[in-house]
Amino acid sequence: MKAAWFESFGAAADTLIIGDQETPTPGAGEVLVKVAYTCPNPSDVKKRAGAFPNLLDNGPVIPNSDGSGVIEAVGEGVDPSRIGERVFVYQGQYGRLLGTAAEYIAIDSNRAPKLPDEAPMEVGALIGIPIMTAHRCVYADGDVTGKTILITGGAGRVGYYAIQWAKTAGATVVATASNPADEATCKEMGADFVVNHREANWGEAVVNALGGDKVDRVVDVEFGANLPEVLKCININGVIATYSSTQVKEPQLPFIQMMFMDLTLRMVIVYAMPEEAKMQAIADTQRMLSEGKLQHRIAHNLPFSEMVKSNELIEQGGFGGCVVVKVSA
């Protein structure tokens, strides 16, 4: 099968190899998926760059956790009726060497849920990390009906879906954006208010937008950098669910202040989500896709030969939406 892989860490152009690898065979409890699209996420390109020094200890890595395709074979214990089923794949390259950047992937049947017929294959490749992260951030701490939620970076890969999940659940949403285009995107997704996080004291702007009220929960893309402003606009007993802190990698917490506010701090990463949370996110996503109630953004749709470019685009940023790579028809 054709595949992309890396045997050393470094820049995409220096490390990613495209060639032939042996087609895997599904083991017990696994399915063999012919991959239609693979979707690199920031976590994937960070791995290739060397974020986890031990990653290559057991051999070369075929990257990418998210993808979509069709089941062509099943292993022992898997219902043969799944053969021919359209699926999306998540956690393709987590705790294992072989991800979705290949013509085939053999993976636990639970990691290849059914993709509703209403969803194109390109969309199936996006369902893993961004949508499931957003779902966990919004729903992990109980019903949000009638709550007010602040979503920082609302036009980002996760924020885009977090706005949609929150509005679907009946929350009031305040999003942050840094330019008019992103502000328009947030409003299109359903945000009730949008403030500019590039401006000083934007936390106070959130309170002003809400007529003096504060938010009950926060879905945060830059925890360390945003915390001082978040603390200006979050209610007593509030919850901060965060999935990234790239600008300030080792944040210092104002413990006394946060303790006396009785705040809950939740760290979110799809790989470590409880299994029941993953299953709920999948079920809700399948339902929303079947009903046509989720909007998506594909910024770049590339051929497999441009796998290097897909990684470079993710690292460069500066665009809204995801990057998908077509692997096979």
From TrEMBL:
Organism name: Umboniibacter marinipuniceus
| CDD domains for the chain | zeta_crystallin
Span of domain Enoyl reductase (ER): 11-325
What GO molecular function annotations does the UniProt record carry, in alphabetical order?
Answer: oxidoreductase activity
Which PANTHER family does this one have? QUINONE OXIDOREDUCTASE
So which domain of life are we looking at?
Answer: Bacteria
Q: Under which name does UniProt file this protein?
A: NADPH:quinone reductase-like Zn-dependent oxidoreductase
Q: Which UniProt keywords apply?
A: NADP
